[in-house]
Amino acid sequence: MDKENLVKEGYDKISENFLSFRHQFDNSQELEKFVEYLPENGKVLDVGCGVGIPVARFFVQNDFDLTGIDISEGMLTKARENVPKAQFFLYNMSELDFLDNYFDGLVSIYALFHVPKKKHGEIIKNFHRMLKKDGYMMLVFNPRENEGVDDFLGTDMYWSCNKPEISRKLVLDAGFEIIFESF
Ligand SMILES: C[S@@+](CC[C@H](N)C(=O)[O-])C[C@H]1O[C@@H](n2cnc3c(N)ncnc32)[C@H](O)[C@@H]1O
Question: Which of 4, 39, 78, 92 has a CB 3.0–4.6 Å from the CB of 51, allowing a cystine?
Fold first, then answer.
């Protein structure tokens, strides 16, 4: 099975249980900081949105116009139930074709590390294309370099993560400036 299908099928299987694990990770401080840069009611794209909690829900509660995309129909079904005021689409993040200069903000939290590393540079460049010139992005990676298949919540899952210095270079090469980092 190819890696993207393994990830998709894995998340379809664990979509019911995902929230029982997700609460161990708190990105609320970074999200609060991030939204200070965005215009009121701005358009935000959540890439690899999962079940919509906590991230998509946070943006909707703060009156942003939230679009979420995910490769797993199972995760999207839960997201639509959890955050009915957002719009959610089935997409592979490697193939996003929203308009140029469209979103005010883009977030991708714990998702890029499920795509083979060799694609990360092109994906981040495409994120830059879809953001307005004064747009902002928040990416959350695993700070540990890794590659391979491992058990995750009882299913096989594929991971591919660069060292922070490589990820930082890919972000800069795509045309972004870095405003804050946290580990
Ligand atoms: C660890 S979960 C994180 C979900 C959410 N961002 C959060 O913070 O709770 C990773 C999500 O990325 C999605 N994903 C993985 N590979 C993807 C791809 N190539 N395109 C779109 N979504 C993907 C998975 O289906 C899953 O919902």
Answer: 78
Which tokens belong to 145? 């370099």
Q: Which pLDDT band, with edges at 50, 70 and 90, does 144 fall under? A: confident
Could you tell me the distance, in angstroms and rounded to a whole number, from the CA of residue 108 to the centre of ligand 1?
Answer: 8
Task: Give φ, ψ of 34 to 5 degrees.
Answer: -60, -45
What's this model's pTM, rounded to 2 decimal places? 0.98
Domains and CATH numbers, the chain: 3-173 (3.40.50.150)
Tell me, what's the pLDDT at 183? 80
The residue whose CA is least distant from atom 26 of ligand 1 is 50
The finding on whether 12 has its CB within 6 A of some atom of ligand 1 is no
Q: Is the CB of 119 under 6 A from ligand 1?
A: no
